[in-house]
Amino acid sequence: MANRYFISGQVYVANGTGVITEAGRQTATITLHVTTEGSFVFSRTEFVTASVASGTATVADSPKTITLSPTTVNVTGTGTIVLTITVPASINNSWTVSANWSASSGGAGGASVPTSADSVYFDANSFTAASQVLTVDATANCKDMDWTGATNTPALTHTNQINLYGALTFIAGMTHTGTTRILYQGAGNVNHTFGGTLSCAVTYYGAGGTVTFQDALNVGTQTVAFDRSAVDTNGQTITCGACNTTSTGEGCTLTLGATTINCTAFTKGAGALTLTANTSTINVTGTGACALGNANYNGASFNLNGTAHTVSGSPTGIATFTRNGTATKTNTITMTSGATLTCTTFAMKGNSATNRLLVQSSTLGTAATITATNWTGSQHVDIMDITATNAVDLSAITGNSGDCGGNTNITFTPAAAQTSSKASTWSDATMWTSRVPLPQDDVTCSHNVTVDMPRIGKSITFTGTPTVSLSLSVYYYGSAVYASGMTFTHNNNEVSSMGRGSYSITSNGVTLRNLIVSCPGGTVLMSDAYVFSDSISIRAGTWDCGTANGTSPSLSQITTGIYTSATRAINLGTGTLTLNGTGASAKWTFTGTLTAGTSTIVLTNSTANAQTFAGGGLTYNNVTVQGAGAYSLTITGENTFNAFTIDRSQAAKTIVATGTTQALKWFICTPAGRTLCTITGGTWVKVGGGQVNLKSISVSGMTVLPSNAWYMGLNSTNGGSNSNVIFRRPLCCSGANVAPARQLVTPAAYQNRGR
């Protein structure tokens, strides 16, 4: 082990066989007095230029240039010589240059670059002018790093990692700009002093002993990680972006005391985290995750001060767990479904009747559990899919409590029907009977209103001819009845049905933007004909079309996020669902439970944009492909159809089923004209007997079964790689799709008979 002292902006003069009165450290041009002639060694640091010239004594090769390596200068006679030194106004010294390191304070350079066994020091002899910089130009290693006594506001900058194996002492009178982390890997009991704000991540990965903080650690938005070390934060404040513990899977011990950690995310990794008894507070801001694992926090408190936090794990030993910021209408706290958070006080706070907080489970319909002695301090909060281990009464909290469904052991503010009394905004309490509607309140609205609340009530009924305008996406928890003649302006905001029972939508001829079914265990019935200008999205629960006909650009599902394990079902009933989207996208995507009934799905497209029918391996009744666009429809999934119809009356169609198997009772292509229809790929299985008898069809890569049932007659084209396709009309049309085509389409548009 050796000590290394950083030196900058100097020339060091060492006596050899000769003697100079001014031997030692020099930082500016100087006249040197030679009292004994002979040899001398001159050493300079990086970026300094220097030379030695004759005076009354003679310098060999005068003027003699001093190089970065130690330079020997021979002097004849006694008297004076002149050392000329030029120090740039700005110096950016490199860690890896040995000339910048000395074995003593202000001594000669040329000592070895520090290793992990060497302690490095920056003192009054290190920097000769203001704002000189030490740049870590490669991975740096050292034991202790101590800046005590350094003057002239020096700077440390690094784009390479600093590996620290001992104590750390930064000072307030320095600046730090680092883009890579400082990694502590030492052992033993050491102190760390940070001196001010750092600009890089700091990781503790020591193998033994304890690191004790001597002052606050502030890394701005960078990460602080406690991965393996034992660290005593000594009650000091930590300010950082992410605060990670045990992320490498190895255990660490934290003694927090009264430390406050201000971070944008808190994450406990896979390793064991041991926290000694403490009164610390962890403040998480922004949209930061709060991943607590299963650790015992032994008295720590958590404050979530941001807008949309996700809380995971089943922690214990938490004193208070609080959402305590300035809430807006869309703020959420999402708890891990199936997990249990244990604390003394669980306080969830919105800040007004209009800026309410939503506390929900991470999986819709599957509860998260809160084990708390009390919920004291909760206010202006709505709750969904939360189980309280200890029964809690939130019926009279400040700002009321909203029941969004799926909750257990929580008493909410009693429901109260709300009726509008004037035109205003939904958040205007004076518009309603007694309060801004809660999720459990049935609502009747007959006045013009701007809907500016996300959770608008339970069953919503519009009467008269109001003008309703959405300023954000909204959720309701019962039925919805729209009024004929009303004006509904969605402003591209969504409407979600989230009731847990059996509810309905009555549109009364009003065109709605979209349908989102998010009703775990519930059902949404379409009571009458419906038109959606945007997609139908089935996320949880059952959508029941009943006898209603409807139109929408597309139908899809969401199976991620809070909907990951949700059960989804569609009952298509007896009506016709027309999907008329024109974009290059999926027209239909569904993988839940499908009851097809006697329904017909019409896929129509007025453009040439290719689209997809992702059938999910389900059984359908009738599916018809039509429209003015000569477009391609790709079918995915191993699906079953009663009748699969291609209507080419307006334009040719291409059906691509490569790599799939499609079973169908009737395959219909109508009308019988010469407009070519193309089938590419797939195995097509005719069930129920009879024949498929088509004409004006181009097929390629198509396998059909049974082998004697598929006839492509007049004007049909063999594109190659087909199996079992017969390219002629049948010898006898008996058993072909003739009569069923008349029944399934129209009497005039029946199955081609290949004649």
Describe the structure.
By secondary structure, the protein is mostly beta strands. Among the domains are: 3-86; 415-571; 580-755, no CATH class. Helices cover 1% and strands 45% of the residues. The chain contains one helix and 82 strands. Strands 16-19-22-24-27-30-33-36-38-40-42-44-46 form a 13-stranded parallel beta sheet, with no helix packed on it. Strands 48, 50, 52, 53, 55, 56, 58, 59, 60, 62, 64, 65 and 68 form a 13-stranded parallel beta sheet that branches. 47% of the residues are buried. Mean pLDDT is 94; it is low at 734-755.
Notable traits:
755 residues; mainly beta; 13-stranded parallel β-sheet; 1 helix; elongated; disordered C terminus
**General form:** elongated
Largest sheet: 13 strands, parallel
Q: Helix proportion of residues, in percent?
A: under 10%
How do the strands of the widest beta sheet line up side by side?
16-19-22-24-27-30-33-36-38-40-42-44-46
**Beta fraction of the residues?**
35-45%
Number of strands: 82
Low-confidence stretches: 734-755
Subunit arrangement of the protein: single chain
Ends apart, CA distance between termini: 99 Å
How big is the Rg? 39 Å
User: Structural class from helices and strands?
Assistant: mainly beta
Mean pLDDT: 94
Number of helices: 1
